[in-house]
Amino acid sequence: MNKTLWSVLVALGLVAPFIVYPIFLMKLLCFALFACAFNLLIGYAGLLSFGHAAFFGGAAYVTGYLVKYAGVTPEVGILIGTLFAALLGFLFGSLAIRRQGIYFAMITLALAQIIYFVAVKSPFTGGEDGLQDIPRGMLLGLIDLNHGYSIGGKTLELNLYYFIFGLFCFGFWVVYRAIHSPFGQVLKAIRENEPRAVSLGYRVERFKLLAFVISAALAGMAGAAKGLVFQLASLTDVNWHTSGEVVLMTLLGGLGTVFGPLVGAFTVVALHSQLSSLGSWVMVVIGIIFVVCVLSFRRGVVGELGRLLKRSL
Amino acid sequence: MEISFQTVMSQLMLGLNNGAFYAVLSLGLAVIFGLLNIINFAHGALYMLGAFVALSGYAEWGTLMGMPDFHLNYWAALVVAPLVVGLLGMLIEKTMLSRLYKVDHLYGLLLTFGVALILQGVFTNYYNVAGTPYEGKPEILNGAVNLGFMMFPTYRLWSIAVALVVCFSTWLVIERTKLGSWLRAGTENPRLVQAFGINVPLMITLTYGYGVAIAALAGVVAAPIYSVSPVMGAEMIITVFAVVVIGGMGSIMGSILTGLMLGMVEGLTKVIYPPASSTVIFIMMVVVLLVKPSGLFGREQ
Q: What is the ipTM of this complex?
């Protein structure tokens, strides 16, 4: 991928909050990062996890709790949230990779359900209400993330936006590096033909587990960031519908493409904000998109585009 | 804490009742998985649909058809709901699932997930998520039966009986009849079975229809016990997935026994440590995975 394209994309990210409502952009960045993390697992290692909401929502709760009640700074909160998700990913991953394919999906789903029940029952998660009014705090104790700049008659929370944008860039870079490294090549080899990868002497289990942990950690980072942006960690974040939604984002954008998850996340987040007045018809629309995607364009938007341009995107 | 024999037995019986539903649903999943190699994520939604056919049939169909006195009574619902849902299932299989057999089986799971969202979303729009009670419970199933150690609601006893009959007759057909042997052969080698003059695609469609029809039947039976709500299937299906992982899906009998057993384990947990009762099955799953990754009744891959 050439340098100009990257510069254009980064520049776009930097000026975007002056054009589009920043909260929408931040939501988009959080879900895009979540989808990228998820794509690392399904698109490159061929592992369909149906329990990624556990990492996303679990980290949102941990970070939210620490920032709100332990008074830690946001970056420390996010760091601990991410570590928590990585640890959880290690536990879930070690159990789930014992089985393959459909079983793997069901196991991750059922394990995630444990986290959901913990969130419902524990005294520190706020039960049905979730953790509300999570303070955004002072980044490094210096920069007020709540501060809004009044530009053109609108208040733009630029500090928070650039912080979230930075997190996203970091996460995206990690995924990009992982994919374009020997590690990523091994993952692809495992996806294409696992017995062959074994016979080549790769310790397949370890590679899968590592991919799972990285993916979980980044999903956690996305969830923690989302918790700060919306100042809320709720049951929705850990619900299996969220796990399903990230599958949809990735599938819609294109499994195993670098930019697919971004396109997918954008489409789904935009759909949600456009259709929010329709109540639970949103669920029906999402369901229909799922069905159409699976039946008629399994490569996703970016995947089909790549096929037309005859290059991998 | 004092735990009386009465409490334990009553929770065990209630657990057995829940377990009976787990057994029917995981049996349906196992039958579909056996022949289509697809995990039917829509199973819970179709179970919910069965309950709604009973509910709306009893309360609304008469008014809709301009015959306010008409009620689809419970006994009729036991037949109508599986038929309606079974036909819908066959339509889904014919138009959508059949196009996915050539690709990765995970797409089947994703497709049925989409179908589940559509069904759940549609019903959430018309009915409250909180749930509606079903009024059509037949007179004859009211009251309670004296089991010697406790009084147990007749209806719950009836629902356990229905589940057991459905489970064991399905097992009998699949394991002990000619039809069953075709089914089993069809899962091993569809082309060979086709060469014997058996219409395998039709057999697959009918199997899917049967699997979801018994889910709908379970839905009708569940309607008078649990309140009927659009999310009843979504809550149930995840637990049933865990049951399937624990059982191993290798055998029909495995899914029946695991379902019944886990219902009772859940009931017992309600006595010993109530907050854990909704997670105990998932914790069991973790333990079983650690000891025997292929499940209790599963075969090693």
A: 0.86
